[in-house]
Structure formats: structure tokens, C-alpha cells
Design brief:
heterodimer; A: alpha/beta; Rossmann fold; 3 domains; eight-stranded mixed β-sheet; four-stranded parallel β-sheet; 19 helices; B: 6 domains; six-stranded parallel β-sheet; 16% strand; globular
């Protein structure tokens, strides 16, 4: 794989906000350690996750930032602002004193970008900001992450974010799974819980994570009850309901609804390491797109995961081989994570009976096929998680060959980015002779290519103007103005032709991240951006038609 | 014997004991001649009865009159004064001291009842210190009795200690005590009173109480509702816990010290010493230096010297010689002062030199004048404002000690002095060698200060004694200096509250605009949008009573909303325009929050009389009328009342170029803009034969007005009337009257239209007003008329003389731009407010969130600078304010800016969404 900074000694990983994110960073951390022997890895996490970092392998040090304190102080306004300011000052000084030589910001927030510019680490794999406060995304993989999380582009992406982050940090070698250490004490604690449970069944221990991070992702407790009843009744299962204390309001009704000795709630009874142990002891986990899902993956327990509402399996699906991902096929999905939903119809595409069936099947062994008569591919696609030949996680449809209308784009983009950003060999598509402007699915592509060419032509004129002082400044101004027009047209074409927006967005990020002040050097970087755009358009069109 | 009688008996016993038995008090009555005691009685009564209407037909009652020191002062204001006390001994002493005075009656109350007084017979009941020393049961009984004897329109005022409950020692019942304000207010309500206001009273026993969170307060009550039983009232007063706090020794000691000082003031030096020795022996307190007080009291009572007798001493002659050399005008003033003017001043000897006394107050330290002066000077120079000033003006010469000390440590700083009292200066000149002191002064004046020769930054230092004695000199001086400093030292947050409706609405806008031009942190609160709802109430409530209830409820809703707004965006000064929807409760709450309340009453006080009820809720009232108006509003209880006419806003009221079409549309030979009041209709009907356009509302549409009134008598906007002014040859300006025909014969105030017309460069004929001559020179800058024939004659004269009209209009415009803009008025208003409330507003500023932020960020220079800038812009102390120019700025961000932006994004992306979720729940 192409690498920007092959050698790293003292690395800072910024991964501030969620447990799931921490776990998703573990392949990158392991890869960094493997590829940079002796390198020291520090993670910057929110204070409450510092303890969790102790069970994550390969972390040398965890620094906690107390965003709760910052928020409470800011909420007071007045001299609370000074408190927050002074606290930030301390954090910045602390981070500066570590003298990191590389940083991967795995968060896309503006505040972490500003923080990293304040800390002043020379080499960065993720988002940071420049001296004017504007965002800077140097790594093209990180630019791809930024492109992919644009809501309108999500459905065209098939690269798991674990891989995108990993590549942002130049990590090739990785364990093909998430990682977490399980302590003996935690296992003993969970064994005690199970032993004390009044289970009458003797079958598999099935973990169920019913709570979800957003209300619209929450499969209803009633459906969980139905599913669990089937598993308990028909499969001799013992069911353990996991969750944080705040999820008791979801889990308690499920326990009550099941009214069975074989259903045990351990909500609020496990710490993070103990939850990992409980999942390790379980034969399978039924869940949504949650932190426990990533934890199950990390302990090697297979998962049946429902990606409802805004959750998108390709993006944050289980990062190991052989897990099941259910992705509803619905016009509005995956929906915008920032919008609430009053009518989550996508939940209806996944029935309790079907989830129970899949769970039972997966308990028997790896699932390689699901009959479309059992799962209608017009309603829900059943995927199996797997790794491709380049070691990138992928989802393979089990109940159809032609999953959905976006699949062709996803495949084409996957090949494009692996080849273009990763430098991997991707088999040549069948020769098409000329750019396939006739294909409906690629409408607008030819126009973008023409814009990219026009841009390169303008850059040539720009270079002439820069080199030749005798040319009147008005000419330079004219060229500059026309370049702005071309860029604006490229952006507009991306908006107009949704499947192509990832191409135009990558171009915009490239232009935003030009470095330096030398006019000729800047012109050269700009030329490269237009060249990249043209090349990517052509390759994307070829891959698309080759699918 | 009832519990009340028992209590009265016990109290009487203790009062008698304190008056003589235990403390060997002399049986001699108070001297009848003028003494510090009578002076203090006069001073205290004046302070306590401020805003209370007196009169020969009115009755006042003092509860606990003791030796009657305030009764003589009260008898000068009220036709009948009744002094009531439990102690016959006290009443006898008062009777002897006061002598024959037909207005004063003295009554012994055997049972804590005001029995001799019939129901509803008194206009004013007061208690200076008696109620503050009585047990709750007695206070409850007397509150209830006061409610009984007061007329419905009467009021009660008492001095109390408020802050927190403090109990007395277990032996005895007469001791000073403090209550929580809410406890006392509750008790007052239960006793059938409404609490009108609680203000700071002049403290008599020093700052030790303040250190314990207790203030001396003047509480004003007004009858409202029926009283509960004495026990219920007393229960509201009783503290929750009976544990005597650490304050107890102080309270006892301070009360005794207070008494000793009073005795000393009466010349009873030996008894004062005995009491202080008793305090030192019996009261265990760490916070009062009894020995020091003892020394001071004894010094105060040292034999006095008559300053007049020194008039020819060599010391006086030498001082006068030097004074003549340095400050001949002051010398002349002292020379010309007659001996009678020297009354009230004396000099006492101390170990550190003579100390000058005036009106019962020592102008130097009574015992250690030199030592105290050094300490005062050092403290003064530690103040940043003084330390930075090139000039310091000291009000109060005293014995000159403090000036000498100030000169020693002032370096290059120039010291100016003003001594308000010629008599005090005469005493000083007679007492000690002041030649060096006079030589060191840069400037000196007597009476009122002269700062005209001062160049560079000038700071004011007022001796505390002079602040009390010479408020009339000090307040205008403060105002003048605040104005002189360009109002730049204070940054109070000001709100301008406009009315719901009426012609005052634009005045509120102009006021707000002027405040902004002055760089003040002001915001206008335009209430006119709420008028629609206010008017709609009439459709729902048809009866007068129903309408009044609905309107009051509507105003209460608005004021509750405003209070919430001010909670979120606090202010320091509230300027209410006339008829702004500000209820008494609202204003009291604002004052409770420390907000300075200001009313600009731009109405005729005789026609709009709501000031009678509202004036006392304002710290400042500015009026457009003088004399009777100012006196009446002062008597109604307003803090300060000043004349401040309306003005023009030259940014709006200015000559405008009009197209021929506009001239045709808006212009006329004669024009008038305004509402169709009676006198205008009556007068203008006679001008119907002229080319005459009348603009404005409330005009009849019958003949002849159907031809004169324009555009269906709609309201005319300010922008439109400027066009009318500029397009018309002669603009008529007749002040409104609802009663008189034509010109109001005794009309005094000048309406805003007068200034606005002049500012537009328009020619006007305005009716004669008594205050107009102060604003314009008639005949040169403006033309007036006194009657209809006079008006017709002047119209005839000027209609064909455009040059004359233009010349007068130009002169009028020049005058109004110089003297009568809202900028000028606001400068005057703020000078008064800031001058008078300088310390209060400074203290608020020091305690404000910005001040704390600035102090806290002292180690982060740039952050501190940003806080200071944001404060100066008038922003709220928020993060948004600190980053407002970062967000929109360009170029490289500093480290501080990046850190603030970090916080900004945390707030935006974490805090606000979390708050939103919480609110949703």
C-alpha cells in the first residue's frame, strides 16, 4: 500500500468520543505497533474511557480529556469560560510536552482539528486545522473518510471505516479483527452471574443487546420479546440481555414480556471488561449497530446485526469474518443520522422470526447462503462479513446476487479507491473503447472530465502568467476567475449527479488542502488535483461498466 | 396579667434602667438650646421621612420616642406630632427637653398599644430605633396598632436591621436584633401592610454589621388588607432557630456604643465612659476596639473652642496672608463671611492637633487627625483611578491634615481642593498653621468647586464627612466630572424601555440611538408591538373594572417577561420612557437587583398624574417641566428629580431634498402635523381660508377640516413629517391642550416638535411657552405667537418673506444642533445618573461577570484583552461574545483564538445538542 509516513516513533491517536470507536481503532493500533517496532502509542480519549483503554492491547498510554468539565464550565458562561480555557491550556501543554511525531485524528470534529493545530504535530493522518482555523485533511484516505461521511455519499461507499482509518495511518499489516483483552476476574464475575441464573434450558447462551444509540435505530422491545421467545422455546436457548444502566427502561419490559427463567438481564451488572467477558462466553450476539457489537467481534463471538435507520453495514459493520448484517432495502435508508424519524418503516423489514432463524442457523455454523424465499431481497439484504484479497473488510450478499441499485457504484468505487489511493492491483475492467457517456448511470461523468481538462488547461496558462512578469495582472485575474468557475461547475455537477459526488468531493478536498505559498508549486498541486479528477472519472466509469 | 402586659412591664423596666438606674444616667433633661442631639434628631428625621408628605393638617406618630430628639424636627413638618414610649421616665425627659410646643403630644403606652390614638387618625408612623430593639411579640403588637391608627392613605416607616435572624442574649428583652427581610415582609403583610420599599438607611453603628451580612434598612409600609392576630404576626418574625450566633456580642456592644456616642454628643462624657467601660467588661467581642471608641468619644467631648474667638490670632492672620497670596478669591470669601455664618462649627484639641467640627460631624479624625489623614491618603492613592490621574480634586478641607498627607505621597500629581463651608475653612484657618498646605495646593475654592482651570485627567476624592454634609455640592460635581471624562469610566448595561403606544415611542428610539452613539452598552426594548394585544383586551373586558383588571394582568405578564429577560441579560440601569409598562412591583424588583431606575417623564405632569404612585419607585425622574413639577415629584418620593427637555435627533430630523412631486405632495403654505386636540381644532378652524394642510390622527372630518386634514387623518411617520416640515413654508406648532382654547396661557414645557422642526431647518410659528426662552431666542431663532390674532398677523407677515423665514430657520437649526440634540440630553442624563451612582455602578461593574472574567484571566493577556473588548462592545459575558469577531475574521488565528474556537465548537457540537435533548425530555 502507498504510505505517506512509513516510520513513526511517537504516535498520538485522537479518538475521543465513543467506546465503539475505540474498539474500531484496535486494528490500526495493532498495525502501527507491528509495522513500527518500538513505537510508543498514546490515545487521547474522553476521560470516562481512560479505564477502558487498559483492556485494549498495544496502547502505551491513555490521556483523558474531560469534555464533561469543559461543557459544565461553558454552560456557566462568565468565568466558567476561563475555567474551560485554563483546562484546555493545560491539556495543550500536556500534549505538547509529549513531542509526538505523528498523529491520527480518528474524529472528524472541528474541535479536535483545532486542538491538533494547537499541539502542533508535524505529521498527521487525519483531520487537523491550519493557522487560520480552516480544516486540513492531508491524507487522501482521510479525505475519502470525509467524503464518505457526507450523507449523500454514504450509500456509494463499501469500505469499512476501520479500513479507511487504518489506511489513513499507513497501516498494511493488521489482525483482520478488532481486539480487546479479557481479564480472568471478569470471566469469573460473569460465570458467577450465569451460575446464579435460574436457567432451565441447557442450550446455547445467546447474548442480546437490545438498546441502541438512537431511538430510530431501536428495534422495538416487542419484537425482541417475540424473537427471544422463539429462541428459548424452539432452540433450548439461554438468553442474556446486556446493556448499560440507562438501557434498563428498554430491557426490563423485554424481560417481563418473555416471562421466562431462561432470560437473564445483566443490565448495569457488568463493567466494560466484564461485558467483554460475557460476550466471550456467549455463543452469539443479536444486536443493532452498537458498541457491544464491536466488542463481540473483538472477543470472537459471531454477531447477527441489524443496521436500521441511519446505520449502514458497509460503513461500520462487524469487522471480522462470518458475521451477519441485515440491511433493510428502503428508499430513505440509510437515513441522515442527525434527523429523527417518526415512522421507522425499515424496522418492519426485519421480522423477529427471521432474526431467530438466522441466529439459530449461525449457531450451527457459518452461513454462506440465505434463500430469497426466507429473506426477500426486495425488503432486506442479508450480508456476511468477509475480507477481500487486499485485507479490506467487505459485505457479501447471501440472499441475492444483485443486492440493490447502489451496488454497482459501490463496487466501482471500491475498486477505484483501492487502486487509486491504496496502490493495489485491481483487475482491468473489460475495455470499453471510449468513455461510456451513453450509460444512464454515469450521466454527468463526461462533463466532469471536460471540466477537469479545462482546469488543467487553465493551470498551464496560470503557470505562464506566473513565470512571465510582463503579462498584465488582469490576465492572471482572468485565469483565476475562470478556475473558480470551473471548480464551481465541478462541485455543481457532483450535486446534480449524486453517484458522482464522491469524485467531485474528493477533488474539492484536494483543492482545500493545497500546501505552501509558492505560486508555481500551488499551481502544480492544483494541476495534480485536476489530473486526479480526470483519471478517477475515467477509471470509475470503466469499473462501473465492467461490473 | 396578659403576656403582652408582662412583656411591656419588663421592657419598661429595662428602658428605665438603661436611662438611669443602672448606668447612673443624670436626671437632668436634655438641654433646650441647639445641641448635637437636636441636630442629629433633625438629620435622622429628615432622612427617615424622605418622600413623606407633611402638612399642617397631618399627624405623625413616633413609636419609642425616648428623649424626644426627633420630635422637634417632626413638628416642623407635621401639624400634630405624637411621641409614644413605654417609659414614663423617657416621656418626662422628652417633655422637659422639648418644652412648650403646641404641635407635640407625648403619650405613655402602658401596654404596647397606641390607645390614645383613634382608628385611622395618623398620616405617618415612624420608629427610628425602638422597633429594632423590641422582641417579636412587641413588634407584632405595635405593627398591628400602627395599622389601626393609620389612615388608608398613610404610611409607616421604620429603621431595622435586616439580613439574617439574630437573637438576643437570654437575659433581658431590649436588644437590637436583625431579621431576614422575607420574615419581616411576611410579618408586615400579616399585620395588614403592603411593603412599599426597603432601602438602605444611614447606618449608625458602623460596618461591623455589614461584615456579618446585616444592613441597616428603612422599611416603608402602606396599609393594605386586614391584620392577622398578634401571635401570628409574631410567629412570622420569630427566627427558625433560637441559637445565638457569633454576632450577638457585636450587636450588644454596638448598641451600647451607639448609646454611649449619643450621650457623649450630649456632653455626658463621664457616663459615656462608664458605658464603654461596661461594654469592655461585659461584652465579649473580637470585632470592636472598645478602647479606641472610648478614646474617640472622650476626645469628641473634650472642651470646645469657639473659632470666632481666634479670628484675630497671629495664626489666622498668617494663614489669611498666605491665602490671599495664593487664592485671593477664597480669601475674599472668608473675609466677607459674617460671624453668624460661623455657627455650627467648632474645634476640639487632640494630641495630634486641632480637629474641626461642623454640624455635629468631625471633619478630621476626632482623636488622631494626622495618623488618620496619612492612612486616608495612602488608601486613596491605591485606587487605580486616583493613581492614574494627573489632578485630584478633594472635596473637604477640614483641618488640612489629609491634604498635607496627600501632597507628601502624590509626586507630580496636582492637588485641588474645594471646601463647601466658609465657616469650616474659617475654623481651620484659625486653628493651625496652614501655610504649607495652602502653598501645596494647585487650586482652591470655597462654596462650589471650580474645575475650569484643570487640564488633564481629574479625579474626585470626597471626604466621607463631606459626602454626607455637602451632598448638594458633591452630586453635581460628580456629574460634571463624569461628563468631563466622556462617560468612559463606567460601562453599565442600560435598557431603554419604551411605551406600548403614544407619541413617546420615537423618543425612546432617539434615546437608544443617542446612547449607542455615546458608546454606552444599551439596548432598546420596543414594546409597541404588544399594543395590539393591549387594545384587544377592550373587546374582551367591557366594564371599566374588568378592563383595568385585564390591563393590569397584561402589564404584569409583560413585566414578568421583562424580568426574565433581565435575568438572562442583566442590566444596571433601566431608563423607562413615559408610559412604559413598568409596574411598581417590577420596578421594586429591579431595584432589589441593584438596577438604577430612571424615568424620563416627557409628559405634562398636570395632565398625566400617574407619577404620584410611581415616582417613589424611581431613583431618578427627568421631567420636561420645572419648579412645581420637580417639587411635586420629589415629594412623591422620587430619588432625584431633574429638568431635561426633549430634543431632536439630527440624524433623522434634518433638511431633506425633495423632488417637485414630493413638494407638491407634502408641502403647503401652512402645515401642521399632530393629533387633533381641542385647542388645535378650535384655533385651526379659523385658518381654513389659507392653503393649509393638517396631518395626523384624531381630527374631525367635518367642515372645515374635511378640506384641511390629509390622508384620512392617518398617523404620520417621522420620516414623513420631516418631508412635510421641509416642504412647507410655515409650519404651525401649537402645544396641545384638552381644556383651553387656542394658546395655553401658562404653558411651560417645550414639545419635541419644536426641536425637530428647527433641526429640519424648517420655519415654524410656535405658541409661547415659559421654558421656550431657555431653548431659543425668540424673534431670532424662532417665532412665537400668543393668540389667534397674533398668529394670523405673523402668518401674514412671514408668508411673503421667504428670506426672513430662511434666516430664522437657519439660526434655529444652528441653535438646536448646538444645544438640543438627544446626544446632548443623554449626556446630561448620564452625567446626573453616573455622577450620583458612580460608586454603586462602579461596584456593580467590579462584581460583574466580565470583571470576574477579566480578573481571572490575568495570566492570559490576550484572553483578558478580548474580555475587555467584548465588555466595551456591550456584549454579554458569553463565549459567543468572545469569539464573535474570530468567526467572521480573516487571517492567522492566534493561539488564544484557536483555543476559544475549540471551546466554541465543543459548545456547539456537544453542549448544545445535549441541552436540546434534555429540553426534549
Amino acid at each position: 500500500m502507498k504510505k505517506r509516513y512509513p516510520h513513526k516513533k511517537k504516535v498520538l491517536l485522537v479518538n475521543i468520543t465513543r467506546l465503539g470507536d475505540m474498539l474500531q481503532a484496535t486494528p490500526t493500533i495493532a498495525g502501527l505497533k507491528a509495522e513500527n517496532p518500538g513505537c510508543h502509542i498514546t490515545v487521547l480519549v474522553e476521560k470516562q474511557f481512560v479505564d477502558v483503554c487498559h483492556v485494549i492491547p498495544n496502547i502505551d498510554e491513555a490521556i483523558g480529556i474531560d469534555l464533561g468539565f469543559v461543557c459544565r464550565s461553558l454552560d456557566r458562561e462568565g468565568d466558567g469560560i476561563v475555567d474551560a480555557y485554563e483546562y484546555l491550556h493545560e491539556i495543550v501543554e500536556r500534549l505538547r510536552s509529549e513531542k509526538f511525531d505523528y498523529c491520527l485524528n480518528m474524529s472528524s470534529s472541528a474541535y479536535t482539528a483545532l486542538l491538533l493545530n494547537l499541539v502542533g504535530i508535524g505529521r498527521n493522518g487525519g483531520w487537523t486545522s491550519d493557522e487560520q482555523g480552516y480544516r486540513v485533511i492531508e491524507s487522501q484516505w482521510a479525505q475519502l473518510f470525509a467524503t464518505s461521511v457526507f450523507h449523500q455519499n454514504r450509500q456509494y461507499n463499501s469500505l469499512n471505516l476501520v479500513d479507511v482509518f487504518r489506511c489513513s495511518a499507513d497501516v498494511d499489516a493488521h489482525p483482520h479483527k478488532l481486539l480487546i483483552n479479557i481479564e480472568q476476574d471478569s470471566i469469573a464475575h460473569c460465570e458467577g452471574l450465569i451460575k446464579a441464573a435460574p436457567f432451565s434450558n441447557t442450550g446455547p447462551l445467546i447474548a442480546v443487546q437490545a438498546g441502541a444509540s438512537q431511538a430510530k435505530r431501536q428495534w422495538s422491545p416487542k419484537r425482541f420479546v417475540e424473537m427471544i421467545k422463539i429462541l428459548v422455546r424452539d432452540h433450548n436457548a439461554r438468553v442474556v440481555l446486556t446493556g448499560a444502566p440507562k438501557e434498563a427502561c428498554i430491557v426490563d419490559p423485554i424481560v417481563a414480556g418473555c416471562a421466562s427463567n431462561n432470560v437473564l438481564s445483566v443490565v448495569g451488572k457488568t463493567t466494560v471488561p466484564q461485558l467483554a467477558a460475557m460476550l466471550k462466553m456467549s455463543a452469539i450476539l443479536v444486536t443493532g449497530d452498537t458498541g457491544p457489537m464491536h466488542m463481540a467481534v473483538a472477543v470472537g463471538t459471531p454477531v447477527i446485526s441489524m443496521f436500521l435507520a441511519s446505520a449502514y453495514g458497509f460503513e461500520t459493520g462487524p469487522y471480522s469474518e462470518g458475521n451477519i448484517v441485515l440491511q433493510p432495502v428502503i428508499g430513505c435508508g440509510p437515513c441522515n443520522p442527525n434527523k429523527s424519524c417518526g415512522r421507522p418503516d425499515c424496522h418492519d423489514t426485519v421480522s423477529p422470526e427471521f432474526v431467530a432463524y438466522l441466529t439459530a442457523e449461525r449457531l450451527k455454523g457459518d452461513i454462506k447462503e440465505v434463500s430469497p424465499t426466507v429473506a426477500d431481497p426486495r425488503q432486506v439484504i442479508v450480508y456476511r462479513s468477509a475480507f477481500d484479497e487486499h485485507g479490506f473488510c467487505d459485505l457479501v450478499p447471501l440472499n441475492t446476487d444483485r443486492p440493490d441499485a447502489m451496488n454497482r457504484y459501490r463496487r466501482a468505487y471500491r475498486k477505484l479507491w483501492l487502486e487509486d489511493l491504496g496502490g493495489f492491483h485491481v483487475p482491468e475492467p473489460k475495455p470499453q473503447g471510449r468513455l461510456p457517456v451513453v450509460d444512464e448511470g454515469l450521466r454527468g461523468l463526461e462533463e466532469i472530465v471536460q471540466c477537469a481538462k479545462a482546469g488543467q488547461e487553465l493551470i498551464r496558462r496560470l503557470e505562464v502568467c506566473i513565470k512571465n512578469p510582463s503579462i498584465p495582472p488582469s490576465e492572471l485575474g482572468d485565469v483565476s476567475q475562470r478556475l473558480t468557475t470551473v471548480d464551481s461547475e465541478i462541485e455543481g455537477l457532483g450535486f446534480k449527479h449524486g453517484p458522482l459526488e464522491s469524485l467531485s468531493r474528493m477533488f474539492i478536498f484536494a483543492k482545500e488542502n493545497l500546501k505552501g505559498t509558492d505560486p508555481l508549486d500551488l499551481a502544480s498541486q492544483m494541476n495534480r488535483a485536476y489530473q486526479d479528477l480526470e483519471r478517477r472519472c475515467v477509471r470509475f466509469g470503466s469499473f462501473y461498466l465492467g461490473e | 396579667m396578659s403576656s403582652l402586659l408582662k412583656l411591656a412591664e419588663q421592657m419598661r423596666h429595662e428602658i428605665d434602667r438603661s436611662l438611669g438606674a443602672d448606668l447612673t444616667r443624670s436626671e437632668e433633661p436634655l438641654p433646650r438650646h441647639e445641641s448635637p442631639l437636636w441636630e442629629s434628631g433633625e438629620r435622622d428625621f429628615r432622612a427617615l421621612s424622605k418622600g413623606i408628605e407633611g402638612g399642617d393638617d397631618r399627624t405623625a406618630v413616633e413609636i419609642g420616642c425616648r428623649s424626644g430628639r426627633m420630635l422637634r424636627a417632626a413638628a416642623r413638618c407635621f401639624g400634630r406630632v405624637v411621641g409614644v414610649d413605654l417609659s414614663e421616665l423617657a416621656v418626662n425627659r422628652a417633655r422637659a427637653a422639648i418644652g412648650a410646643n403646641s404641635r407635640v403630644e407625648l403619650v405613655v403606652s402602658e401596654d404596647l398599644m397606641l390607645s390614645p390614638l383613634p382608628d385611622g387618625s395618623a398620616d405617618f408612623v415612624w420608629s427610628f430605633s425602638a422597633l429594632s430593639t423590641m422582641p417579636p411579640l412587641a413588634v407584632a403588637a405595635l405593627l398591628k396598632e400602627s395599622r389601626r391608627v393609620l389612615k388608608p392613605s398613610g404610611s409607616m416607616r421604620m429603621r431595622l436591621f435586616l439580613g439574617r435572624d439574630v437573637l438576643l442574649s437570654s437575659d433581658g428583652v431590649i436588644h437590637p436584633r436583625a431579621y431576614r427581610q422575607e420574615s419581616f415582609e411576611k410579618a408586615a403583610r400579616l399585620a395588614g401592610f403592603e411593603v412599599v420599599e426597603v432601602t438602605e438607611a444611614m447606618p449608625s453603628i458602623g460596618g461591623a454589621l455589614s461584615r456579618h451580612g446585616i444592613e441597616t434598612a428603612a422599611v416603608t409600609l402602606r396599609p393594605a388588607g386586614s391584620p392577622a392576630t398578634i401571635d401570628i404576626v409574631a410567629a412570622a418574625l420569630a427566627p427558625a432557630s433560637n441559637a445565638a450566633g457569633p454576632l450577638l456580642p457585636d450587636m450588644e456592644a454596638l448598641a451600647s456604643v451607639d448609646f454611649a456616642v449619643t450621650l457623649a454628643g450630649q456632653g455626658e462624657r463621664e457616663r459615656a465612659r462608664q458605658i464603654l467601660q461596661y461594654v469592655e467588661t461585659c461584652c465579649r467581642t473580637a470585632t470592636i476596639d472598645i478602647r479606641d471608641i472610648l478614646d474617640r468619644v472622650l476626645t469628641r467631648t473634650a472642651p470646645k473652642t469657639d473659632p470666632a474667638s481666634r479670628g484675630t490670632s497671629p495664626l489666622y492672620v498668617a494663614n489669611m496672608r498666605r491665602l490671599k497670596e495664593r487664592f485671593p478669591e477664597v480669601h475674599a470669601a472668608v473675609e466677607s463671611a459674617d460671624t453668624t455664618s460661623l455657627a455650627g462649627v467648632h474645634v476640639t484639641e487632640t494630641q495630634q492637633g486641632p480637629a474641626v467640627w461642623r454640624d455635629g460631624a468631625c471633619l478630621d479624625h476626632a482623636e488622631k487627625p494626622q495618623q488618620a489623614a496619612s492612612a486616608w491618603a495612602a488608601r486613596a492613592l491605591q485606587e487605580k483611578r486616583v493613581g492614574d490621574a494627573a489632578n485630584v480634586l478633594v472635596v473637604g478641607f477640614g483641618g488640612g491634615y489629609h491634604l498635607e498627607s496627600l501632597m507628601i505621597c502624590s509626586g507630580e500629581r496636582k492637588i485641588w481642593c474645594c471646601e463647601p463651608s466658609v465657616a469650616a475653612l474659617h475654623a481651620a484657618l484659625s486653628s493651625r498653621d496652614l501655610t504649607k498646605c495652602l502653598a501645596g495646593l494647585e487650586g482652591f475654592s470655597v462654596g462650589s468647586p471650580d474645575t475650569s482651570r484643570v487640564s488633564g485627567a481629574l479625579e474626585l476624592l470626597v471626604r466621607p464627612q463631606n459626602a454626607l454634609l455637602d451632598a448638594d455640592v458633591v452630586q453635581p460635581l460628580r456629574a460634571q466630572l463624569v461628563s468631563r471624562r466622556g462617560l468612559s469610566l463606567l460601562h453599565p448595561r442600560i435598557a431603554v424601555l419604551g411605551p406600548l403606544q403614544g407619541g413617546t415611542i420615537p423618543t425612546g428610539f432617539y434615546t437608544q440611538a443617542a446612547l449607542q452613539r455615546f458608546g454606552q452598552h444599551s439596548r432598546g426594548i420596543d414594546m409597541s408591538g404588544f399594543n395590539k394585544g393591549y387594545e384587544l383586551l377592550d373587546d374582551l373586558a367591557r366594564s371599566d373594572r374588568g378592563r383595568a383588571v385585564a390591563r393590569n394582568a397584561y402589564v404584569d405578564m409583560l413585566t414578568a417577561t421583562m424580568l426574565q429577560n433581565f435575568e438572562e441579560k442583566p442590566i444596571d440601569v433601566l431608563i423607562c420612557m413615559a408610559q412604559a409598562p413598568a409596574s411598581a412591583k417590577f420596578l421594586d424588583e429591579m431595584r432589589r437587583r441593584g438596577v438604577v431606575t430612571v424615568l424620563w417623564f416627557v409628559e405634562d405632569y398636570l395632565r398625566f398624574t400617574y407619577w404620584r404612585d410611581m415616582a417613589r419607585h424611581y431613583d431618578f425622574v427627568f421631567t420636561i417641566q420645572k419648579n412645581g413639577c420637580i417639587e411635586a415629584i420629589k415629594a412623591a418620593g422620587a430619588g432625584e428629580v431633574h429638568y431635561l427637555p426633549t430634543a431632536c435627533d439630527p440624524f433623522l430630523h434634518r433638511p431633506v431634498d425633495l423632488t417637485p412631486v414630493e413638494r407638491e405632495q407634502w408641502g403647503s403654505q401652512l402645515s401642521f402635523v399632530g393629533a387633533g386636540y381641542h385647542n388645535r381644532q378650535q384655533m385651526f378652524a379659523s385658518l381654513a381660508h389659507y392653503p393649509f394642510k393638517i396631518w395626523g390622527s384624531e381630527w374631525p372630518m367635518c367642515k372645515p377640516f374635511d378640506k384641511l386634514v390629509q390622508e384620512d387623518a392617518r398617523r404620520i411617520s417621522p420620516e414623513e413629517y420631516v418631508k412635510i416640515f421641509c416642504a412647507s413654508d410655515i409650519n404651525l406648532n401649537l402645544h396641545s391642550s384638552t381644556e383651553r382654547d387656542g394658546v395655553e396661557p401658562n404653558g411651560d414645557f417645550v414639545n419635541p416638535r419644536t426641536f425637530e422642526l428647527a433641526a429640519c431647518g424648517a420655519f415654524q410659528l410656535v405658541d409661547e411657552r415659559t421654558l421656550l426662552a431657555e431653548c431659543f431666542e425668540a424673534g431670532k431663532e424662532i417665532v412665537t405667537f400668543s393668540s389667534l390674532p397674533d398668529l394670523v398677523a405673523k402668518v401674514e407677515h412671514y408668508k411673503s418673506r421667504p428670506e426672513e423665514r430662511a434666516a430664522i430657520a437657519a439660526a434655529g437649526r444652528a441653535r438646536v444642533l448646538r444645544d438640543h440634540t438627544y446626544d446632548r440630553r443623554i449626556e446630561q442624563m448620564l452625567s446626573v445618573v453616573y455622577g450620583s451612582k458612580f460608586q454603586h455602578l462602579s461596584a456593580r461593574e467590579m462584581e460583574s461577570p466580565w470583571a470576574r472574567m477579566i480578573e481571572r484571566s490575568s495570566e492570559h493577556g490576550e484572553l483578558r484583552g478580548r474580555c475587555e473588548k467584548a465588555r466595551a462592545r456591550g456584549e454579554q459575558p458569553t463565549l459567543d461574545a468572545l469569539v464573535s469577531d474570530v468567526v467572521t475574521g480573516n487571517g492567522k488565528l492566534t493561539e488564544t483564538e484557536q483555543k476559544l474556537m475549540f471551546l466554541f465548537h465543543v459548545k456547539k457540537h456537544i453542549l448544545r445538542p445535549a441541552q436540546g435533548k434534555k429540553e426534549e425530555k
